[in-house]
Amino acid sequence: MTANKKQNGDILLRGGKVVNVFTLEVEEADVAIAGGMITGVYRRGETPAVDAATTDSTAALNYGEIIDLQGAFVTPGLIDAHIHIESTLLTPPAFADAVIPHGTTAVIADPHEIANVLGFDGVKAFARMAAGLPMDVYMMIPSCVPATPLETSGAVLDAEAVSRLFDVAPGAIGLAEVMNVPGVLAGDADLLQKIAAARLRGLPVDGHAPGLSEDALQAYIAAGISSDHESVTSEEAWDKLRRGMRLLIREGSAAQNLAGLISCIVPSVSENISFCSDDRHPEDLLHDGHMNAILRKAVSLGVAPALAVKLATLTTARHYRLSGLGAVAPGYRADLAVFSDLAEFRAQAVFKAGRLVASDGEIRDRLDRASICAQTGADSAEATVEVDKYPPRFGEGSVHLPDITGRLAPAYEPNAKVRVIVIQPGQIVTGQEIVSAADIGPEKDILPLAVIERHGKRGSIGCGFVRGFGLKKGAVASTVGHDSHNLIVVGVNEAEMEFACRTIAQMGGGMVAVAGGEVKAALPLPVAGLMSDEDAATIARRLRALHRAVSDLGCPLAAPMMTLSFLALPVIPELKLTDLGLVDVNRFSLVPVLC
Ligand SMILES: [Mn+2]
Which molecular function terms from Gene Ontology are attached (predicted)? Predict the structure, then answer.
């Protein structure tokens, strides 16, 4: 649809109610748009060249197009303050197709997942995929690749690489979550240089400080880190707000912190709060939504709708200096969402720079990516990315399996004592316990767990045990294993585990459930072993089939693949497993399985 240009504007959104994120009013107002920008927000009856007596035909003499919103609500396009797009299992174009119909028009993405697999090229490939979409993808340059020295990633991003990425990666707006808290507190030179690279450019630095408080928190903030999305309790959140941190309230598929932090959403500090998802699974994107789902939940918990909208738009745009975004006001870009109500937040229509890009839940107008990319200086040939244009390790080359025979589940004397990871259902934190080796096996739900270095580096294999995955037969494996994304596998015995690993290697990366020599379900992830090149509906369908197969093997968990993917992440307490062995996260050190 192309709007005709008339002297009063290209488009007039008439008859709506504008959510004013500056005053928190909801105004009966019309919105005039010209050249992709908002030129005016006029209370009913005050709209230039349109008055109560004017008929649409007269008004049409003055506006290229009149759209009657029939009392619907107009908000700024919604902005996700922090997300790992790879965790949706979708590439940025497929992610955009899934979230724009829900009202999202911009995200702030941390591509540390693909960076941990493919390093500098991975971040550039991510930027290429994200170019020219009808949704802005602003990138925070990954600060922790690898997340810790206690694992083997596919690549390393040192301070020099981070600095170069700030210069060459389009859309880079800051440094992504600094998860190596001990490294900051110890004054790790390379880490502090990465922080300085952002600060010298006047760019924000995101944090990742679960449970940090008192002097350690203040030292972490003093190092130049200005936000955090890991708060679980309001006490923890207030500690961080009180010392000047931006509070990102995370409500995603992996972690839901909104209810626990709702008491922080008060006028005295609301300017320093933003909503984010961190991780969002395809099923949730399709059926629950994205940022609109967070607004729905916030309002259901008692937050005033206009204030909730502000935390998903203006406060985020201001913190990350997204000029011209985050409000329905003159001079702002016409990134707008039109909602039927301010309770369910179902988007009727979504505009990007004044163009209708989605309506009634469907993408309507994929912008001409090649021409936009040409304008933005990105090579359009690069920007219209096809998966096969990636470095060879995309597709069949994503999994370099070392010799795994007899190395996945070492045996222990029955009277030995072994340290076990204990899953907390629905959480990404774990617990730990010491059990007798005689209890190892599906009967007592003490299962062998292994993490295999799959990037062709060390060929190392970390072995341990996990309680809570519940398998009674077979094995489950995945190349999504935060953050180094090695190959993680849990099973009832070594043979099943080995078959699962070899199946994934043949797929070139992904997720699989096997039993008795059969593949029960598989989800190929050919883009770095992290993302599919299919759309959200297809991935959601495959993931449902995989979850059913894992459940049939005996697993009681609601999101088994997400839970499995975080068992390897040594920056979130308490006991995790990497390719180098068991990690006591609080002690930030490797610990033996045998006690
Ligand atoms: Mn991660």
Answer: adenine deaminase activity
Distance linking the first and last C-alpha atoms of the chain = 68
Are the C-beta atoms of 249 and 257 separated by less than 8 Å? yes
CATH of the domain at 104: 3.20.20.140
Identify whether residues 122 and 196 lie together within a single domain. yes
* Chain segment 104-148, per-residue pLDDT in tens: 999 999 999 999 999 998 898 888 888 888 999 999 999 999 999
Total domains, the chain: 2
Same domain, 426 and 572: yes
Distance (Å) from CA 344 to ligand 1 centroid: 30
Q: Give residue-wise pLDDT tens across range 276-297.
A: 999 999 999 999 999 999 999 9
Flag whether 401 is in a domain.
no
Domain boundary among 361, 380, 396: 361
CA distance 248 to 78: 15
DSSP letter, residue 463: E
Token pair of 232 as six digits = 């679980």
Please tell me the distance between residue 175's alpha carbon and the centre of ligand 1 in angstroms.
15
Half-sphere exposure (Cβ direction) of 422: Cα atoms closer than 13 Å:
8
Distance CA 223, CA 213 (A): 15
In a domain, 520, yes or no: yes
Which ipTM score applies to this complex? Answer: 0.95
Do residues 357 and 421 both lie within one domain?
Answer: no
- What is the 484 CA–ligand 1 centroid distance (Å)? 8
CA–centroid distance, residue 112 to ligand 1 (Å): 6
Residue 215 sits in which domain range? 75-361
- Rounded distance from Cα 566 to ligand 1 centre (Å): 8
pTM of the model: 0.92
